[in-house]
Hints:
Layout: E1 2-8, E2 13-19, E3 24-32, E4 40-45, E5 48-53, H1 58-70, E6 83-90, E7 101-102, H2 105-112, H3 121-135, E8 141-145, H4 155-158, H5 164-170, H6 179-193, E9 202-207, E10 211-217, E11 220-224, H7 246-255, H8 259-268, H9 271-276, H10 282-290, H11 294-318, E12 323-327, H12 328-333, H13 335-342, H14 354-358, E13 366-367, E14 376-379, H15 384-402
Parallel strand pairs: 1-6, 6-8, 9-12, 12-14
Antiparallel strand pairs: 1-2, 2-3, 3-4, 4-5, 7-8, 9-10, 10-11, 13-14
Helix pairs in contact: 1-3, 6-15, 10-11, 11-13
This protein binds adenosine monophosphate.
Amino acid sequence: MKILVINAGSSSLKYQLLETKTKNVIAKGVCEKIGLQNPTISYKHNGQEQTFKGAKNHEEAISKVLDILVNKDYGVIKSLSEIEAVGHRQVMGGWVYSESQLITDELLKQIKKFDEFAPLHNPANVTGMLACKKVMPNVPQVAIFDTAFHQTMPEKAYSYAIKYEDSQKFHIRKFGFHGSSHRFITLEMAKILGKKVKDLNLIIAHLGNGSSITAVKNGVSVDTTMGLTPLQGLMMGTRSGDIDPAVVQFLMNKKKFSIDECMSYLNKQCGLYGVSGVSSDQRDVIAAAKEGNKRAQLALDMLAYSIKKHIGSYLAVLNKVDAIVFTGGIGENSDLTREAVVSDMDELGVVLDKKKNKNFKRGEVELISSDKSKVKIYVVPTNEELMMAIDTEEIVKKLKKSK
Ligand code: AMP
């Protein structure tokens, strides 16, 4: 089945056209600077890349993408009827949705209520859905929630130790994110280890520009490092991750920040970027550290320590762990980070094979633990878009059956 997968941001819209049977990406690209000056649309297909003039709003962006996909010179499909459904990434499913859902007017109303939890992403996701509904009114649309996979967390793991009445009334709790990635890896690991999903205990480290680690017990998420928002947990590209909440008050006093300025600072000015002063991109920070930049080295040390510490806590939570899995841009590519994270954990049954960790073909599944290791260590490429397409296909199949 050909599925269009959409990830709409406030001024960008990523798209991928996938064939679920072959798992092939037929075409993909990004509409950037939507509504801003010099908007563009990139389009990759069959090893070629083209750039087109972009759009002034999301609706126009979707229309232009569809025109590109069916163009008779460089398009990849003959007619729009080949697209059987659209899957939308939806950042917040809150406490309501533990599975992907067919998009209806009722669902859209409910999703709008989550705006206050993700003010940047939630309205943008909805804009993408509305735009697609308008341009492709007869094509089923599905919402895939970043938070859904973590709805299995027990209350003791997702609750914050604030006044119970307040956490209940305002839904202040951990939701977790990167659900499509953590779920994809869980399903992949069942195949790789030849086990049933329900028999799997994993620690999945999704490390990229945004990062989170999930403890998977009996195939479901029992804890994850991101919280009410994606700011909690690990140190990230530009996000601080865990800090003492009192730091907010200090920063507001010392830098004369409003609360919004302070939150923007913690989301956009901190992490690898803030500590190193070099970049949010780990490759740049590694290069600077190699040249003797001490702040860059500190940023890398802090990042690895932050990951190690959370993996350690989940080893304690799970007790028996089949595998620690590294994924995401950093997890899949940075042997340096992986080595720094899992070194000196042999007493805990975690032993890296340093050679294997360095020398393997990128983009492939690789076992990188030594034979002595009680806990296996894997690198597994994630594929959030494929997970979204598979979910979308399942819902569309059910919909067809029910008709
Ligand atoms: P993602 O958000 O999953 O696309 O991951 C982006 C992060 O992966 C950035 O910090 C990149 O610097 C990092 N990354 C990508 N390739 C490498 C590499 N070869 N070595 C180190 N970090 C990498």
